[in-house]
Design goal:
alpha+beta, 2 domains, four-stranded antiparallel β-sheet, 8 strands, 16% strand, elongated
Length: 244
């Protein structure tokens, strides 16, 4: 049983969120959903005790409410931040496991919000880094330092090409070299899961982009070859704080 007297929202209130949850549980109350959104998540970056206290109830609604599914996903995408609610997040483990199953079923229906759902599922798997940065691979750029010579390399994966390059702010991307996508059997870990899921659901463009993202690039400066996902993750993955 949640002790709401200790579960403040972004305004410091402890009674408004449970009242709003009761309203949306009774029916699709658009006004209540809007208020819940800005009380539980501040600019999609900060979450609060009330956010995690509300999560199990949002998950229970998620099978019949796109708003509940979206808000629960947003809360989980923000869970990598320094919210000071690690114990509350840990207490949501069963609800998050249920949410993972629900999101996976939703993906298999090939919804119009496929990428958003895909990213929410990554967050539910605690893959916060990829949940935050994964795009549609139409015009995506990833910037990282070459692990050998430290020059900044631009990785492009989109409609305009799939290449590594040195970005010149006057000339654009110069010294372009084609990327080397990972073959299906070369993928492992989260990259393998992401690729297999996109293939399963018939999202060929997403699967191809993932294969390139988890493939290899050549540095235009020193000609060394490196794994793109490994280098980008080491440079950008959030540092999570968990109870010691």
């Amino acid at each position: 049983m949640v002790n709401w007297t200790q579960m403040h929202d972004c305004y410091g209130d402890v009674d408004r969120v449970p009242a709003l949850l009761e309203r949306v549980e009774l029916g699709d109350d658009a006004e209540a959903w809007e208020e819940l959104g800005y009380r539980l998540v501040l600019e999609c970056e900060l979450v609060f005790p009330a956010s995690f206290a509300a999560l199990p109830r949002l998950v229970r609604l998620a099978s019949r409410s796109a708003r509940a599914r979206g808000l629960a996903g947003t809360i989980l995408r923000c869970a990598a931040g320094h919210h000071g609610c690690d114990d509350l997040l840990a207490g949501c483990a069963d609800a998050i496991a249920e949410f993972r199953e629900l999101l996976d079923l939703h993906l298999q229906a090939r919804p119009v919000d496929y990428l958003a759902t895909f990213r929410d599922l990554l967050a539910a798997k605690e893959q916060y880094h990829w949940s935050a940065v994964l795009g549609e691979f139409t015009d995506d750029f990833y910037h990282l330092a070459c692990p050998h010579c430290a020059v900044e390399v631009t990785i492009a994966i989109g409609d305009h090409g799939r290449y590594s390059a040195i970005r010149d702010w006057h000339l654009g991307d110069v010294d372009r070299l084609g990327l080397r996508p990972a073959a299906r059997e070369e993928l492992s870990g989260i990259g393998r899961w992401m690729h297999q899921t996109a293939v399963r659901d018939g999202h060929e463009a997403l699967a191809d982009g993932i294969a390139h993202l988890f493939g290899k690039a050549e540095c235009p400066r020193c000609a060394s070859v490196f794994n793109i996902a490994d280098e980008y993750t080491s440079a950008n993955s959030p540092v999570l704080r968990r109870p010691g």
